[in-house]
Write a structure and sequence with these properties.
alpha/beta, four-stranded mixed beta sheet, 16 helices, 10% strand, globular
Length: 381
């Protein structure tokens, strides 16, 4: 029997719909939770740049098909490409992805992200830097990278570090999940709209004769709800979170949480302890430092630094935890990663420090972001 090679590219993973007035950009890989691969990022960059230059287009809607907005980057594809080639294959992916995130954060036209479903990792990078971030009762947010030996990237050190108190450190270190209501209350989202109303919202936006920031916000506000946050939400425990996650090190954070657990048998505390103990020790330390550096940096500075860290992780400069975590969680799925170093106290400061340093290889460069005249979008409306 003759063998056949399939050279067909996966088509229609991104849909570009709408008219010259309103463009809809739709992530269309629902069977993979709209996780981003290189082809999708290439198409997004190409078309979004063209749309930005098209004077007839007044605003852009970004959304996903299926039960996810976007679950992040396609880590399986990234790891597979590196295992069959070179670590720089993965670096190329992150270079393009971070440039896409920066483009969206500085987009010249109003960008409305409809985050109806799962949004994690790279999906957060696509949606959370923009001005209009619409969530629903179906939205689930998390940055769970430490579980596979990575760290919250795509500009996460910028948006997490700007959350109330030390809530960003809590989310980044533990990978804790938030629902749409919690995202609204902590500032990750600008509006909460019921999922059933999104189609009508889109149609109403398209009736605007001369859409601008003010008129778009007025329509969004007309559809927006003011849901009450759950009493058991971790966001209601910000005093305890600030007390624990303001500590100088992961070891001190863990000790403080364990002390709290003795007095309060609250689920979020025990879940946080469990997550920290199961995460990659070096990733935990990288994450804490990254978020704290991000607090005093611009988005472009955060992305440049995060790219450098990513390259060191992909290159296994200090640890191979990313490959081990991917094996355990995504390939073999035994969920039993063997981290190296295996314990927090075995991770030396200079081991973390080297992950923030440039790579001494002839063809490696720091991330190059284009000069963008448009200011970073602000959610302050």
């Amino acid at each position: 029997m003759a063998s056949h090679c399939n050279f067909n590219r996966q088509l229609n993973q991104i849909l570009f719909e709408g008219d010259s007035f309103c463009k809809k950009v739709i992530l269309n890989r629902p069977d993979k939770l709209n996780s981003l691969n290189s082809e999708m990022i290439f198409q997004l960059l190409k078309h979004l740049r063209a749309i930005e230059m098209d004077s007839t287009v007044k605003f852009v809607i970004l959304k996903g098909n299926g039960r996810a907005f976007c679950a992040g980057g396609d880590v399986v594809a990234i790891v597979t490409s590196m295992l069959s080639g070179h670590w720089s294959y993965g670096a190329r992916f992150y270079e393009k992805q971070f440039n896409l995130d920066y483009l969206l954060a500085t987009y010249k036209k109003p960008l409305i992200a409809l985050i109806d479903g799962i949004v994690m990792g790279g999906g957060a990078g696509l949606s959370l830097h923009g001005r209009f971030k619409i969530v629903t009762e179906k939205t689930v947010f998390a940055m769970p990278e430490v579980a596979i030996g990575l760290f919250p990237d795509c500009g996460a050190s910028h948006f997490l570090s700007r959350l109330p108190g030390h809530f960003g450190e809590f989310l980044g270190v533990t990978g804790a999940r938030l629902d749409g209501v919690e995202m609204l209350h902590c500032g990750l989202a600008t509006h909460f709209v019921f999922s059933k109303d999104l189609d009508l919202l889109e149609n109403t936006l398209k009736t605007l004769k001369s859409p601008d920031i003010t008129s778009i916000n007025q329509i969004l506000s007309n559809f927006a709800q003011k849901p009450i946050i759950k009493e058991n939400s971790s966001l209601k425990r910000l005093e305890i979170i600030n007390k624990c996650f303001s500590k100088d090190s992961i070891e001190e954070i863990l000790l403080a949480l364990e002390q709290e657990a003795k007095n309060k048998a609250e689920t979020w505390i025990t879940d946080a302890i469990k997550s920290i103990k199961s995460g990659s020790p070096i990733s935990l330390k990288i994450t804490l430092r990254s978020i704290r550096e991000g607090r005093r940096q611009s988005l472009s500075e955060c992305l440049i630094r995060e790219y450098t860290i990513c390259c060191n992780i992909l290159r296994t400069t200090a640890s191979a935890d990313f490959f081990e975590g991917s094996r355990a969680m995504l390939f073999d799925k035994d969920k039993k990663p063997k981290w190296e170093p295996s314990k927090l106290e075995l991770v030396k400061f200079n081991t973390v420090d080297i992950c923030f340093s440039g790579i001494d290889e002839d063809d490696w460069k720091y991330l190059q972001l284009p000069v963008r005249n448009h200011a970073i979008s602000s959610s302050k409306l």
